[in-house]
Amino acid sequence: xxIIVTNTQANQYKITWSEIITRANKLxxxxxxxxxxxxxxxxxxxxxxxxxxxxxDYIIDDLIDSGSTQKRYSSYNKPFIALFNKQNEIELxxxxxxxxxxxxxxxxxxxxxxxxxxxxxxxxxxEGLIETPKRIIKMYNELxxxxxxxxxxxxxxxxxxxxxxxxxxxxxxxxxYSTCEHHMLPFFGKYYFAYIPKPDGLIIGLSKIARIVNYxxxxxxxxxxxxxxxxxxxxxxxxxPLGIGIILKAEHLCKTMRGVKKQGLMTTAYLKGMLLKDINxxxxxxxxxx
Length: 290
Prior knowledge:
Elements: E1 2-5, E2 11-14, H1 17-24, E3 33-35, H2 39-45, E4 58-64, H3 68-72, E5 80-85, E6 95-98, H4 108-119, H5 132-143, E7 154-158, E8 170-180, E9 186-196, E10 202-204, H6 206-217, E11 220-221, H7 223-237, E12 243-252, H8 253-256, E13 265-273, H9 274-277, H10 279-288
Parallel strand pairs: 2-6, 3-4, 4-5, 8-11
Antiparallel strand pairs: 1-7, 7-10, 8-9, 9-12, 12-13
């Protein structure tokens, strides 16, 4: 029996000016607002904007999502608010909000890449660099697709559906590529994934393991979290097999290319169940990873 775990496409929700004005009109316009660049400035302009944080009664942004911007402004000891708050508004939690100022023929991301080229001392108008911002944006969309898309659909099969109950270790290996979140430089190498299915459990299609590895690698990562992301997702999908785990061996260019400039090799393991607690199962898995 084949089971397909499907994931719907990420919801994109376009915010209209009408919604923005309606929400802004509910705020106290007698107060002074400092708008966080860039989205918060549009909101502040509809209220009572000031040029500096010290003048403001409130710091305002268009959106609170992860809370990282709010944390960045916490040292100013000013109330931080936003017109839309995904932490409090459940209906917005899993939506990708697009504001009117983000829809433009001139990409603000492209402008920022041009400024970076100028910052390092390059001429963004020379022939070899004219198309570079466009290429970088295309590359980012490819490398970091996991931020805007759900995990891929995976096929699962009932153990024994082909007439054989399999209770031995199943191992998959392959290459992976990701990006270190500290310096945004690549780390890449080899993964070794294994699981021991329950007799009445589930078996995953082989190629789907690689797709899940690629998905979680398509974010800014650290190697330790990448392993746990992959294992915990597949552990749940496989309905908690007897054992499950992954070993990642990778080179980190943030060490090889910069800083100490030495080969940045690192190996991490994330093991659960029999692969962690049963010494024979663990040693069997490790023997395959040499």
